[in-house]
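Hi all, long-time lurker, first post. I run a small reading group and we've been trying to get comfortable going from sequence to structure in the token notation. Rather than ask abstract questions, I figured I'd post a concrete chain and ask someone more experienced to write out its structure so we can walk through it together at our next meeting. Sequence below, copied exactly:
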Amino acid sequence: MADLDPPGAGLGQPAGSDTGTDNTRAVVGVAPSGTGTAPSPGAAAEGSPGAGDGTRGVVPAPGPRRERRAGRASGHGLFRRRRPIREPGKPSRAGRNLPAAIGVGAGLLIPVLVGLLFFPIVFVGIVTLFGAVGVWEICRALELRRIHVPLVPTLAGALVLPFSAYFGGAEGLAVAAVFSVLGLFLWRSLDPAPEAGKSLMAGAFTVLWVPFMLSFAMLLMRAEGGFLVIATLLLLVVANDTFGYLIGAFFGKHAMAPKISPKKSWEGFGGSIGGAFVVGGLCAVFLLGQPLWIGLVLAVAIVASATAGDLAESMIKRELGVKDMSTILPGHGGVMDRLDSIVFASPMAYLLSATFVPGMM
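-- Answer (accepted) --
Happy to help. Here is the structure in token form:
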């Protein structure tokens, strides 16, 4: 690097000249070796390459240029470093790949709505499949902490509970839940493993967390007009996620639970409430044929329960040391990362429908 020509090389100076190659001599005004005399104090200003007196001018020290370069590199002064433009496909301010998240979300919502409105048994099958995948993701994540959940009976319970609720009602759901937990104990008794108590507790927790709570939506399917309540529930969950994401990404400053979910803010929660008010009011009047206040109450309750479900899953993921339950859904993470809100919102929708809509349940 020391062999590069100095600034000004080639501009009236012979190639290979040592003039200006020693910055120390240029600064203090010492004559280059071989000249024999030192220049006068005004030589640096008056002399120039090729001057008539035959002397070569001293090349000025490149201090200002170096200072400008340093300022440009450090980002201070007039030359500040611009923020790099986010490349396509990179996560957005809220940590998601937004185009992929929208595409995957639409791809999941369309078949669910089609089954809900036209083919109820298909809807039950889709919900059961999602619940089973969510259970598999949880069992896989628990393995990171050496908690070995009995996978076969846990998945069996995930497959049985929604259909039991749809065909047998609340009584069928209760019986299926009891037998699912008993099946876990029986399986672990026949196939003992270290720390069996921890394994059984984790298995029972997984069954009651995902398939059992999702099955309350199947109870709504049995009611007259219950599919409209489920459609309202899904639209409110979408409004909660969408408006919470938009408001939180641009205006979020006060973290709701910084130790659990640092990106979830109170501003985003307010945006979720506002968006859900609009969606809930419209759905109550035009879909459910109920007064406006029922839609507002439903909106607040669904947003609160959906947020609680989101925070609950975030707490479990932080405890397990994982960011997402899996990477099955681009832009979302795992299936459980989408079900976390619906899992808590389904029992709330069932409870409110049974309480405020006489004769529905």
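A couple of things your group might point at:
The radius of gyration is 35 Å.
The longest helix spans residues 151-190.
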